[in-house]
Design brief:
Blueprint: E1 6-12, H1 19-30, E2 36-42, E3 58-60, H2 66-80, E4 84-88, H3 90-99, E5 107-111, H4 116-121, H5 129-141, E6 144-147, H6 150-160, E7 167-169, E8 192-197, H7 206-213, E9 220-225, H8 231-240, E10 247-250, H9 256-261, E11 265-268, H10 277-285, E12 289-292, H11 298-301, E13 308-311, H12 314-322, H13 329-340, H14 342-358
Parallel strand pairs: 1-2, 1-4, 2-3, 4-5, 5-6, 6-7, 8-9, 8-11, 9-10, 11-12, 12-13
Helix pairs in contact: 2-3, 3-5, 7-12, 10-13
């Protein structure tokens, strides 16, 4: 790397499966290495890695929690001397915001991963007011916060009082090169194949999808890929609704795109999304979407009648299932690549990072 390259530290809690981990790993690997010198700092250990980390410079801090990692993270920043430090998810953004007081000449960025107001509402735990206060303080100290959607930007303004000039919208890219499927098997004589990919948490709304499917009278199978705190509750819901023979659970797979390609429709039940990577990837392979209307990036991806439908309630969701339409996989794929191809989003990040450093 040239000495005058822009040095960036991307900081992650772990390298386990997740949208934030995917995007930060993607940026570390794909930013132009003639301009940027990128290092990935991982708070956790090498025990569980869900992504290809070949040819990446990674520093593992081997700490079990972000709180315990703060001294090590400070030492790492002192040693690496970056121009930009970028974190993601709330508890890590909080730590980075507080650390930024020590390094006034470094640009500290946070990447929001969710819409805070709605995520808090659907959280199963009690609200931690001390955490909320510290998070608001830390986020205001960051130089910039990267938002994945217009709704997220508005949430940062409303919930944290962040000035708009300190907010930047950069959507998530299609990080892999997906092969578009050649056929769409919608036919009343077939068994319809539905799929949902995502963390099994309250905000993802798996249970309301199951409630709709319990009223769907045509033959179908439903694959759920993911793991999380609501798994047992969702399993119980499947049994209660009599869907056990129709629903398949896959905790983790490196072949998500294969399952997406083999499905007829991606179903999203979320009450809120940051920017739904799995939904985006479903469109990328040519599999259309039926999604509940929810704050976040869903409405910036789904175009009614082009790559799927957004519905307002369970009744409309069921109506769409009962009247499934044919979608041309190639057109579904083109609808998202024209806006979220990795070259487009990488260019947005590179331009933004250069602008930050040039203003110094």
């Amino acid at each position: 790397m040239a000495k005058d390259n822009i040095k960036i530290l991307f900081v992650l809690p772990t390298l386990m499966a997740g949208g934030a981990e995917r995007i930060m790993t993607f940026l570390t690997k794909n930013l132009d290495n003639t301009i940027f010198d990128c290092t990935l700092i991982v708070i956790g250990s090498q025990q569980e890695i869900a992504y290809d980390t070949a040819n990446l410079r990674i520093i593992f801090l081997n700490r079990s929690r972000v709180l315990y990692s703060i001294p090590s993270l400070i030492r790492c920043i002192k040693k690496e001397k970056p121009q930009i430090v970028m974190g993601t998810v709330s508890h890590l953004n909080l730590a980075i915001g507080l650390i930024s007081y020590i390094f006034p000449n470094i640009h500290f960025l946070g990447r929001q991963a969710a819409i805070s107001k709605i995520s808090s509402y659907h959280s199963s735990g009690n609200k931690n007011y001390l955490f909320s206060f510290l998070l608001k303080t830390a986020l205001r100290k960051l130089d910039y916060i990267i938002c994945q959607s217009a709704d997220m930007l508005q949430d940062c303004k409303d919930e944290f009082g962040i000035k708009e000039e300190n907010l930047k919208i950069i959507r998530n890219p299609i990080t892999d090169s997906f092969k578009v499927k050649t056929t769409n098997n919608i036919d009343t004589t077939n068994i319809h194949k539905f799929i949902t990919v995502g963390r099994l948490s309250q905000i993802k709304g798996h249970e309301r999808i199951l409630e709709v499917l319990s009223k769907f009278e045509l033959p179908f199978t439903y694959t759920i890929i993911g793991d999380g705190p609501k798994k047992n509750a969702i399993l119980e819901k499947v049994d209660f609704l009599g869907l056990k023979d129709k629903v398949t659970f896959i905790t983790f797979t490196r072949e998500v795109s294969k399952y997406l390609s083999q499905s007829d429709f991606f179903l999203q039940g979320s009450f809120s999304e940051g920017f739904p990577n799995a939904l985006l990837e479903s469109c990328a392979v040519g599999t259309p979407v039926i999604a509940f209307n929810a704050p976040g990036g869903t409405g910036e991806i789904v175009e009614n009648g082009i790559n799927g439908f957004i519905v307002k309630d369970q009744e409309e969701f069921l109506d769409r299932l009962n009247n499934l339409e044919f979608f041309d996989p190639q057109k579904v794929s083109e609808s998202v690549y024209k806006k979220f191809a990795k070259e487009i989003i990488l260019n947005e990040y590179e331009t933004f990072f250069q602008k930050i450093v040039d203003k110094q």
